[in-house]
Amino acid sequence: MLKAGVLGAGHLGKIHLRLLNQSDKYDLIGFYDADEANAKRVVEEFGYTYFDSIDALIKAVDVVDIVTPTLSHYDCAKKAIAHRKHIFIEKPITNTVEEAEHIRELLSEHNLRGQVGHVERFNPAFIAVKDKIEQPMFIETHRLAEFNPRGTDVPVVLDLMIHDIDIILSVVKSKVKKVSASGVSVISDTPDIANARIEFENGCVANLTASRISLKNMRKSRFFQKDAYISVDFLEKNCEVVKMKDAPENPGDFDMILQNAEGIKKQIYFDNPEIENNNAILDELETFANAINTNKTPIVTLHDGTEALRVATMIINQFK
Question: What SUPFAM superfamilies does its record include (predicted)?
């Protein structure tokens, strides 16, 4: 078992502590949190071991799980790597692309493993269809959330939209050619609502919308490709795959047939895969342990996290 320690015991940090504690891949050693009052509450409620300094915790573990505010990711990761520790780091990977690239360089120099917490990659609805997404040419995403003061210290792009940026970059095998975007600040100092259009060199276009002042929660993505339409509901954890094929000579009474102006007939059919329920956060943590133990590449690499941040930064710069 890998000895693990968590930096940050906020809302998400507590979830990581609980899951690491129950995982058979890790031995949870303890945690550090800069807020001593919060740390004491966590100890009293859950009984986890509290370390009074970051360095003390890092020295005691094999894997450092960084769940601190984004501004501190870079310094925490540097300290962990200096002590030759593997790092799991929550999204966004760091505050700037330059910091992310430096962390990648340091990790590579010391032959260590790192993974970024883009948890939607482990969403069972996305896992069920990801192999069916082939050369999408148009993608539309909506990620809407009811207002929550937590997270409003960063633009909605880094808070919410970055999830969809990472998903899109994982399925579009082409370089980004152009980004255009607009954002509106309603209740925060940074944009609360944003829309972005990402154009890729292969002709694919992605249209992303994110809001953190919506009246309802929504996390939906739609992928359009030749002869197929795929939708993923990340919130409800369901998906739909609609495909087209040449219509049979003698279609059945219940077959859905479309005919275009040239007289070509196509049959519409559903190819919905089975969805296996999982705990996405536990899965991302445990697959990282597997990557360390087998010396394999993690599912969401620091390169992936850096590229998602790079595109997010391009979008944010459009607001200026």
Answer: Glyceraldehyde-3-phosphate dehydrogenase-like, C-terminal domain, NAD(P)-binding Rossmann-fold domains
- 179 Cβ contact list (under 8 Å, min separation 6): 196, 197, 198, 199, 311, 314, 315, 318
Q: Which domain holds residue 218?
A: 121-277+311-319
Task: With cut-offs at 50, 70 and 90, classify the pLDDT of residue 227.
Answer: confident
- The span from the CA of 179 to the CA of 93, in Å, is 21
User: Which CATH number do you get for residue 76?
Assistant: 3.40.50.720
| Residues, the chain | 320
pTM assigned to the model: 0.92
In a domain, 214, yes or no: yes
In a domain, 292, yes or no: no
CB 56 within 8 A of CB 74: no
SS3 label, residue 137? coil
